[in-house]
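Quick one:
INPUT:
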């Protein structure tokens, strides 16, 4: 997989540290050396966290974040791989399509049934069906297709094509909580996103693709050990030099100078689930995230929360900190911290594991990403991950797509040579 990561990247920091330079995805590093960023990084060093040039290249450290941004624009899969592929005559892109289920000819996937702008439509193929709907939607499509827990499918009157109770189960997610600290000096970026400065920055971005709006939200990233005896980082912490929240019923940047940050246990162990409630593809599913159910996740979460508070007391940054405004010092005990994460925390939007690959009898997919028990059907997205990765999931899922394309091309080459 290291080769897959390198193959997709065009990293401005150049080769080394596992980086790639010839790929389609532009990767840049935050160049905003404003005072609060510098002090935050130095405060991390004072706690024993090494300063690193590229947080993704070392196992532990804090430094300026790298982003999938090129020329001030998000270097998304749509702006990179799809934009390149759309020039090919064998690709047709259709929008406004809601996929319902996979169609089968016996046990061979032969197409998909969908709704296009609300009207039923079918797509048929003699080749493979590649399901890439994500960690939340791919398992729902499989279940509506008759691949899942027979008890669930039976209750909804869905014919079982292949019993796979693991579909939709073992869902892994990151649980995070925003922490906000007020500043006693005007060193945050809050004014840049309010009033006339926001208008000027928007104009600057439109004309030059530069300025605060061209940057990613979280400017400093760190992978840290919440306890010194650990042999590798167990939490990720991100910092943004501004604050936001609900003001008069609307989401807005804070009026006063402040910063915020969040973190989460890297390798979450708490397992949730997702399942269809009906055969209607537009019906909301039943999601049981089961956040912080595992003792490991709770321990890392508590330790990480306290580490962030200690970070704000270090000599390099403490003179700028006026106080903790969210969640506030009333949240003190371990139980208080866990309750706060459950009440006011957020998903990391990193759901995975709901159609996991593996070599065991319960795995949904084999190591070639083929759905076990049927033919011509693969799943290629975050749902295939058997465990949570030690980071965000955008890059790993792109790498999964790249590796899947290699697997499929190799199969076709072998078939033609046979």
């Amino acid at each position: 997989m290291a080769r897959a990561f390198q193959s997709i990247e065009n990293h401005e920091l150049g080769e080394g540290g596992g980086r790639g330079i010839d790929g389609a995805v532009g990767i840049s590093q935050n160049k905003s050396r404003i005072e609060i960023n510098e002090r935050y990084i130095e405060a991390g060093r004072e706690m024993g966290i090494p300063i690193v040039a590229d947080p993704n290249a070392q196992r532990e450290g804090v430094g300026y974040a790298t982003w999938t941004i090129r020329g001030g624009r998000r270097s998304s899969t749509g702006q990179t791989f799809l934009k390149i592929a759309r020039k090919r005559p064998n690709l047709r892109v259709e929008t406004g399509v809601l996929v319902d289920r996979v169609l089968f000819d016996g046990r061979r996937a032969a197409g998909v049934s969908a709704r296009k702008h609300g009207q039923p439509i079918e797509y048929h193929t003699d080749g493979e069906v590649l399901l890439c709907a994500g960690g939340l939607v791919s398992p729902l499509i499989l279940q509506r297709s008759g691949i899942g827990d027979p008890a669930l499918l039976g209750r909804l009157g869905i014919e079982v094509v292949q019993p796979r109770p693991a579909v939709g189960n073992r869902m892994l997610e990151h649980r995070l909580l925003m922490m906000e600290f007020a500043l006693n000096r005007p060193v945050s970026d809050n004014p840049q996103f309010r009033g006339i400065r926001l208008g000027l920055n928007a104009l600057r971005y439109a004309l030059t693709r530069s300025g605060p709006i061209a940057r990613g939200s979280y400017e400093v990233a760190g992978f840290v050990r919440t306890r010194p005896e650990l042999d590798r980082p167990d939490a990720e912490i991100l910092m943004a030099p501004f604050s936001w929240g609900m003001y008069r019923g609307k989401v807005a940047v804070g009026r006063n100078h402040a910063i915020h940050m969040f973190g989460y246990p890297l390798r979450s162990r708490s397992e949730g689930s997702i399942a269809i409630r009906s055969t209607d593809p537009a019906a909301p599913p039943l999601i049981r995230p089961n956040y912080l159910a595992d003792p490991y996740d709770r321990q890392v979460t508590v330790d990480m929360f306290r580490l962030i508070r200690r970070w704000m007391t270090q000599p390099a940054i403490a003179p700028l900190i006026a106080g903790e405004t969210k969640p506030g010092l009333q949240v003190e005990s371990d139980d208080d911290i866990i309750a706060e994460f459950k009440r006011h925390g957020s998903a990391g939007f990193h759901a995975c594991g709901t159609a996991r690959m593996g070599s065991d009898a319960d795995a949904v997919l084999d190591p070639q990403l083929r759905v076990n028990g049927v033919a011509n059907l693969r799943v290629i997205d975050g749902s295939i991950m058997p465990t949570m990765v030690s980071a965000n999931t955008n890059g790993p899922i792109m790498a999964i797509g790249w590796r899947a394309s290699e697997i499929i091309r190799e199969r076709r080459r072998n078939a033609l040579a046979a």
